[in-house]
Amino acid sequence: MNVITATVDAKGQSCPGPLVSLAKALRDAQIGDLLELLATDPGSKSDVPSWAEISGNELLDKSEADGVYRYVVRKVV
Amino acid sequence: MATIAERIDDSSTLVDLLQRVEALEAAQRGKIARKNKMTIIAWGGDLDRIWPTTILATTAAASGMEASVFFTFWGLFAIVKPGVRITGENWMQKMMSVMNAGSAQKAKLSRYHFRGAGPAMFKKLANDRQVAKPEELIATAQELGVRLIPCQMTMDLLGLKREDLLDGLEEPIGAATAIAEMRDAAVSLFI
Fold it and tell me: Which pLDDT tens digit goes with each residue over B78-121?
């Protein structure tokens, strides 16, 4: 069972806030750790997958509920 | 069908093969290895230029890319320390600094400036949407390891000294070094 090691709450932040918050949290994480990102920025729907592709980290899951986007990312690099 | 070993047994094929390898090697020598890197030439010091410049630089660094920003001409005024007022040694340089108030905080809009009302509205909207301001993004960029590099020639031209500029910048460089930065970057922009 994969356990989320940290939650990054970037609700309310606009571009590039959520990604900067996520990148900062990833610096303190270990390879293989799962991080959860919460955002309300609709731009994150395309930005988080792009970020995963550029950075080489893995986007495991994305979902939306009540206007909040939730992403689960695995630190690979 | 003959195997590779059987085919290169024929000496004419071997010569052909060696020639092809040489041609490939020669072509490879002229190629430039591009890194997972973004280089931005920050030419504009306007708010509507320095803002996207700092957004792109921080996002590249947050995505694990190497990133560098080369500040030249009006872009240089955006990295003047907030407290520094008049810079330069002669009246022309001093007049330039009065017309281009230093620091990202004081950056003007290229259009709809309206004596500062435009930027104030822009920043109010940005605040409401939690969009980080350029000066905050510059600090974030430095924290994420973006290399901020001033242009030596523009510094000399405008009479800007190292101590007039923000702390933590790279050593000032010239055009050739800026080109070297762009040459090996997968993404290069002029903003």
Answer: 999 998 888 888 898 888 888 888 889 888 888 888 888 888 88
For B81, counting Cβ atoms within 10 Å of its Cβ (0-12 exposed, 13-18 middle, 19+ buried), the class is middle
Q: B4 is written with which tokens?
A: 């590779």
Judged by DSSP in three states, B35 sits in strand
Place of tokens 């290895």: B33
CATH architecture of A4-74: 2-Layer Sandwich (3.30)
Residue B154: what residue type? T
CA nearest neighbour of A22 among A44, A46, A2, A42: A44
> Between chains, do A19 and B62 touch, taking CB under 8 Å as contact?
yes
A31-75 per-position pLDDT tens digit:
999 999 999 999 999 999 999 999 999 999 999 999 999 999 999
Instruction: Please tell me the distance from the alpha carbon of residue A25 to that of residue A28, in angstroms, as a whole number.
Output: 6
Closest CB to A14: pick one of B36, B129, B140.
B129
